[in-house]
Design brief:
By secondary structure, the chain is of the alpha/beta class. It is 41% helix and 18% strand. A six-stranded parallel beta sheet has the order 3-2-1-4-5-6, sandwiched between helices. A six-stranded mixed beta sheet has the order 7-8-9-10-12-11. The longest helix is centred in the N-terminal third of the chain and has 17 residues, at 28-44. It binds guanosine-5'-monophosphate (5GP) and manganese (II) ion (MN). The site of guanosine-5'-monophosphate has 12 residues, from strand 11 and strand 12.
Length: 356
């Protein structure tokens, strides 16, 4: 058992008011890890005075079927209540992010909060804002670490099966494992991953239903947006085995863009032979806090990068777009017109990408 787990069990045993939080624009691993912790705590500490999951921004529709996803507070919609819960909590569990910046406008409340903080994450270089840190960059998903934490305690599966948890815990964990590995197609070579999957299935997961819930529920608008991206917007740079797609607000509006609709588009160019790098950019509205921090700039460009094999994209993400992430999946942000973000990328990528 990892030594930090004992400390987490102790903090969980002493807590009375618990907040769980994760990164903004939560993905399957963020929602899965936060909600698995939520269901575990409901089983383990039914006597808690309060237990709240706070999302910095709303989850996309394709994750709202997760058990109790609708009970999460969303900071950018319920700001006062979320910040009050954060201030009142004596234990704050942070999952799937490595630095406070990743919770966006919730960061000041998180940093000011006096409750004990636990961080469970698989991104490189965690900042030391938490009292207990479980940081395992080799783990394919934070959900794997949550699985280890929950099952290192004897009898947890039976406790939660008989208790109120039902199959909620394994369902949340499986969702994070599946989404952060692209349905077990990258970061997924470790045999332990499949032992965990086997145990999750024994524990009650319907893996085919989860796949269907996550990957086969897109809106028709999103399908047409994908068609538009691939047909009209994908620029290919054969020398560097790279593809670039970017969308401005007008284009997003035309396709009735909803949060989550861009999910997975960045991976698609990699399905072509000889394309190993992919970059996707999308123009977003900056929040009031982001505008204040960036000279009143109203547009925020969200950049996503993907690659295959030994071709890290996180260095480019960090150096050109103040971001980071994993070697094959990273991202960053840019404040300014999308044309400038594209320009920055196009004039810089040759320093970071390989030709072969
Ligand atoms: P996505 O492209 O799905 O938004 O992000 C892929 C991965 O890149 C995330 O799991 C996260 O590790 C990283 N990432 C995305 N955006 C940012 C960012 O703005 N800053 C940092 N540090 N990492 C990011
Ligand atoms: Mn993750």
């Amino acid at each position: 058992m990892r030594s930090e787990f004992e400390s987490i069990y102790r903090l969980v045993a002493e807590a009375t008011k618990v907040v769980i939080t994760t990164h903004m624009s939560p993905d399957g691993d963020a929602m899965g890890s936060a909600l698995a912790m939520y269901h575990w705590l409901r089983c383990r500490r039914p006597d808690l005075q309060s237990l709240t999951v706070i999302l910095p921004t709303a989850a996309p529709d394709f994750l709202m079927w997760l058990p109790d996803a609708d009970k999460c507070l969303v900071h950018d919609r319920q700001r006062e209540e979320a910040e009050q819960r954060m201030a009142d909590a004596d234990l704050i569990i942070c999952t799937d992010f490595n630095e406070p910046k990743r919770v966006g406008a919730l960061a000041p409340a998180l940093l000011k909060a006096t409750g004990k903080k636990v961080l469970i994450d698989h991104h490189l270089h965690p900042s030391d804002f938490a009292d207990v840190i479980v940081s395992v960059p080799e783990a394919p998903a934070t959900c794997q670490l949550v699985y280890e934490l929950i099952t290192a305690e004897e009898n947890t599966p039976s406790l939660c099966r008989e208790g109120r948890g039902g199959s909620s815990i394994p369902t949340c964990i499986y969702t994070g494992l599946m989404t952060d590995t692209g349905n077990f197609s990258y970061n997924s070579r470790n045999p332990e991953l499949y032992r965990i999957v086997a145990r999750l299935i024994e524990w009650g997961v319907d893996k085919d239903a989860i796949y269907n819930n996550v990957f086969n529920q897109y809106s028709v608008d999103r399908m047409r947006l994908v068609g538009y991206c691939l047909n009209q917007k994908m620029r290919v740079f054969p020398e560097y085995h790279m593809a670039l797609i970017y969308l401005n607000r007008k284009e997003l509006y035309k396709y009735n863009f909803q949060s989550g609709d861009a999910e997975g588009i960045v991976n698609m160019p990699l399905q072509s032979k000889d394309i190993y790098y992919s970059c996707f950019m999308r123009e977003d509205k900056a929040t009031p806090e982001e505008q204040a921090a960036h000279n009143g700039c109203k547009t925020k460009i969200k950049i996503s990068l993907r690659s295959q094999g030994d071709r890290p994209v996180n260095i480019l993400a960090a150096e050109l777009f103040g971001g980071g992430g994993h070697a094959n999946a990273s991202g960053g942000e840019y404040y300014g017109p999308i044309s400038s973000a594209v320009q920055r990328f196009l004039s810089g990528y040759t320093q970071f990408f390989k030709k072969d």
